[in-house]
Recover the amino acids of this structure.
């Protein structure tokens, strides 16, 4: 008796993911560490000086974490209500934060009590930051105002009331110590100069602005609001350079990597997108469990920290690079070790021992081997196989049709099984690689279950879906045939013109030759 031959599953080429340098670079992070905070994380800020600790603002506390610590190394909790936007100064010595009670507090990172308290806003303050001269603070609140404060005297220098809605984000220029930028829910981004009494530039973003970012050079500005990330040229008066719409929900945070060549954006759609700052195309993306509110990248891109709405802090550290010294010390066997004896030809007096190769049959192959057609079809109609490897399901159907047992395997099924069959056929019949087999299956199902049409609303709905799918495919094919006919006509016209042109050239050449000979 001949051995059973397993079902041959047609292999179809798959388009693999394109592996780029960015893919390899951004995949080079360890499994994330999850830290639970007391509330939604509204701001994460890295200290600009070693050891690059980071401040996390959540609920009514500010926690300072070390680079590799999972517990806070310091906590600032002198807030009566929620704290917002804790930000480091450029020297890493001071920390400023806004609050729900409209006051601004300045902390020394080595102490616990506030050094200064600035009162002037009448509503919660979400935006605070240092100007690059290190002696002034700017702030923005829900009272629509933007204020500038002097640190030594703890007094207000100037107040701007140009926004018409909540001021929720901003940043300071690293090039000019008098320039800072604010973004508001009134859809505008305003550029202020501390030497003037009003804003010097207004940019219309078109959506409530959630985050703004200024490139280190000070020439380009990035704003995020709604589903859009927009890049503006400040030196050209706020000209829009590019508008990116790669997120499905509101973009909440922005940051740059250490080299300034990659822009990161976090969104409520649970994704962090990474863009190239030369082409502004997405080069990589990260997926998270819940909506993202804040994002920060450490100097040298060693750590990515993401804060989410459920109060979870997600921390990823870069994998250490493998040293070449160890890899050189570990010596691999020579190639000849693996191929030794493969070319040996047995002699006449040699006794050859062959080891039988045991084949492991899959479940559907075992059932087909024992001629259980209906159970074999049931085995490949399981959801994991139908969804991820539909070619296996179709291959078994084709084998049953070759044996002549497909009709008996399809018959005698209940409502749930018929619904499953029709769902698969309606979804996959339009794929060219499955069409020849599934059209036959659809014909058989229609013939077998035509007498019971109208008895089950679920089955009737699936029959209508199948009819609609086939109808649409026929319409597409007809349109494609029309386009093909048009293209054939055009190609034929081009060919005729070319032939006429060549014949004309030949005849002209012959006439010229005859005339030349006559003149001679």
């Amino acid at each position: 008796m001949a051995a059973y031959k397993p079902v041959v599953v047609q292999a179809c080429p798959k388009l693999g993911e394109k592996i780029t340098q960015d893919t390899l670079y951004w995949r080079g992070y360890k499994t994330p560490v999850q830290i639970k905070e007391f509330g939604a994380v509204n701001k994460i800020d890295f200290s600009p000086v070693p050891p690059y600790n980071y401040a996390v603002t959540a609920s009514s506390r500010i926690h300072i974490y070390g680079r590799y610590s999972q517990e806070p190394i310091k906590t600032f909790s002198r807030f009566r209500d929620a704290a917002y936007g804790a930000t480091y100064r450029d020297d890493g010595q001071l920390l400023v934060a806004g609050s729900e009670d409209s006051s601004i507090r300045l902390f020394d990172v080595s102490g616990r009590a506030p050094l200064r308290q600035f009162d002037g806003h009448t509503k919660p303050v979400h935006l605070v930051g240092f100007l690059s001269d290190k002696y002034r603070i700017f702030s923005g609140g829900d009272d629509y105002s933007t204020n500038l404060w002097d640190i030594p005297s703890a007094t207000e220098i100037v107040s701007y009331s140009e926004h018409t809605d909540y001021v929720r984000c901003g940043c300071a220029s690293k090039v000019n110590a008098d320039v800072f930028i604010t973004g508001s829910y009134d859809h505008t981004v305003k550029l202020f100069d501390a030497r003037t009494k009003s804003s010097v530039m207004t940019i219309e973003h078109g959506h409530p602005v959630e985050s703004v970012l200024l490139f280190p050079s000070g020439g380009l500005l990035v704003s995020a609001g709604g589903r859009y990330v927009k890049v503006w040229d400040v030196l050209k008066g706020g000209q829009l350079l590019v508008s990116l719409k790669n997120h499905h929900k509101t973009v909440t945070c922005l940051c740059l990597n250490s080299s300034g060549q990659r822009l990161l954006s976090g969104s409520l759609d649970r994704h962090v997108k990474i863009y190239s700052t030369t082409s502004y195309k997405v080069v990589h993306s990260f997926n998270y469990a819940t909506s993202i509110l804040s994002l920060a990248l450490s100097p040298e891109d060693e750590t990515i920290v993401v804060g989410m709405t459920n109060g979870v802090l997600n921390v990823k550290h870069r994998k250490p690079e493998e040293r070449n010294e160890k890899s050189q010390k570990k010596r691999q066997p020579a190639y000849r070790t693996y191929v030794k004896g493969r070319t040996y030809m047995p002699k006449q007096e040699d006794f050859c021992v062959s080891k039988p190769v045991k084949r492991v049959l899959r479940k559907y192959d075992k059932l087909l081997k024992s001629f259980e057609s209906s159970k074999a079809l049931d085995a490949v109609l399981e959801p994991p196989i139908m969804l991820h490897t539909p070619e296996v399901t179709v291959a078994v159907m084709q084998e049953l049709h070759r044996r002549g047992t497909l009709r008996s395997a399809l018959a005698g099924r209940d409502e749930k099984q018929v619904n499953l069959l029709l769902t698969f056929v309606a979804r996959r019949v339009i794929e060219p690689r499955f069409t020849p087999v599934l059209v036959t299956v659809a014909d058989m199902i229609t013939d077998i279950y035509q007498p019971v049409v109208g008895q089950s609303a679920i089955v009737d709905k699936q029959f209508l879906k199948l009819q609609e799918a086939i109808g649409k495919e026929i319409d597409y094919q007809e349109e494609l045939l029309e386009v093909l006919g048009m293209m054939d006509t055009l190609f034929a016209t081009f060919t005729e013109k070319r032939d006429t042109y060549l014949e004309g050239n030949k005849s002209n050449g012959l006439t010229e030759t005859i005339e030349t000979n006559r003149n001679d």
